[in-house]
């Protein structure tokens, strides 16, 4: 199974601080399955093995979850495919590199 790792890397030391030795050598994040969903267990990779998927400030499309949900994988894929055609056509000056969204309904404790 092929996976990607998404995390929020620290680009520079925090004001007045330094990166810890662990932060200098490795990155811990969420592994994304080949099916596109986040896996529960975090993964730690050396910085030489890691390549960011998204970083802070990357342009993304926020996903809205409509009332009633109906968030089947098929419906989500169809919606994202439509967005991938629509936005470049009507907003070519606003490219994006991914989708993101958040909701209590996505909480794995409710699954």
Task: Provide a brief overview of the structure.
This protein is an alpha+beta fold. 21% of the residues lie in helices and 23% in strands.
Helix content: 10-25%
Structural domain count: 2
* Rg from alpha-carbon coordinates: 17 Å
Q: What is the β-strand count? A: 5
Residue stretches low in confidence (pLDDT < 50, at least 5 long) are 1-13
Give the DSSP E fraction (strand runs of 2 or more residues).
15-25%
| Gap between N and C termini | 23 Å
List the total number of helices.
2
The residue-averaged pLDDT reads 76
- The sequence of SSEs as H and E is EHEEEHE
* Structural class by SSE content: alpha+beta
> What kind of sheet is the major sheet?
3 strands, antiparallel
Strand order of the largest sheet: 1-2-3
How would you sum up the global shape?
Answer: globular
Report on the structure:
The chain has two helices and five strands. The strands form two sheets. A three-stranded antiparallel β-sheet has the order 1-2-3. It has a two-stranded parallel sheet with strand order 4-5. The chain has two domains: 1-54, no CATH class; 59-106. With 111 residues, it is an alpha+beta fold. The radius of gyration is 17 Å and the shape is globular. Helix 2 links the parallel strand 4 (60-62) and strand 5 (98-100). The longest helix is centred in the last third of the chain and has 18 residues, at 73-90.
